[in-house]
Amino acid sequence: MPTLDVLAIVPHPDDAELICGGTLARLAREGRHVGILDLTQGEMGTRGSVEIRAEEAANAAMVLGVAVREHLGLADAGFENRPATRKLLAMALRRLRPQVVIAPAPQGRHPDHRIASQLVRDACFLAGIRKLDPDSEPHRPRKLLYAIAYREDHVKPTFVVDISADFDTKLQALACYASQFEGATQAGEVYPTGEPLAEVVRHQSAHYGSLIRCAYGEPFWTHETMRVDDVMALQVETF
Fold first, then answer.
1. Looking at the chain, which terminus has fewer C-beta neighbours within 10 angstroms, N or C?
2. Are 116 and 23 in contact, with CB atoms under 8 Å apart?
3. Domain 6-233 falls under CATH 3.40.50.10320
4. Are strands 100-104 and 6-10 parallel, antiparallel or unpaired?
5. CA 104 vs CA 69, 169, 227, 239: distances in Å
């Protein structure tokens, strides 16, 4: 049965590229089987259309090197975390069988982002309950990560992924969304600074990178405390 190593589950096409595109590109480059599941088609977006965004999302997926990109068909700006929605997502998780899932930050400016964060967590648990659907094999992801990029009001990152070698790929994937980002100064959780969106992303990624002493990074948070077996192998110097 096909199994994904990592699956990013996000509300809209372009969200994955913004919050964890560099990490997905790095994983794919390193040979991991990576996927993106967009919960909606972004049909409520002010700019562009469903058809245009679908083409842009497909192009961005090729740039990142992800193996699978699908949409769940939920209503943009209208989906809720309720039993039917949780089951729909849980069944997708059973089919795609990711080991690690990336979700949006628990806090978010866009209501869809906040709702998606809890929906993903609940569906991951539900997907492991056998009686949810006796005709399909249960599957519960091993790890749930929250991508907290641009959320300075959130907790300190549990860890930051070095995306220095893949940052240009992240920008190339974002550039695929011309209908959304051409001339834009903000998007999703990215607050405007008066600069072009790509420069805001660059500065934010450089900030996260500085936390682990590298050029560019993407931050993540987990509920769980991270385990360390060898303190001598710890990276990021104190002084």
1. C
2. no
3. yes
4. parallel
5. 17, 21, 23, 32
**2 band by pLDDT with thresholds 50, 70 and 90:** low
Contact 86, 74 (CB under 8 A): no
Secondary-structure percent of the chain, ordered helix, strand, coil, rounded to 5:
40, 15, 45
If we measure between CA atoms, which residue out of 23, 22, 9, 144 comes closest to residue 70? 9
**CA neighbor of 143 nearest in space, from 106, 101, 176:** 101
Using alpha carbons, list the distances in angstroms from residue 167 to 26, 36, 39, 153, 181.
9, 18, 25, 24, 17
Q: Helix H segments across 14-75?
A: 15-29, 50-64
| pTM > 0.85 | yes
For 191-214, the pLDDT digits (tens) are: 888 999 999 999 999 999 999 999
CA contacts within 13 A on the Cβ side of 147? 31
Collapsed DSSP state (helix, strand, coil) of residue 151 = coil
| Token pair 């992800």 in the structure block, residue | 66
- Distance CA(139)–CA(61), nearest Å, equals 25
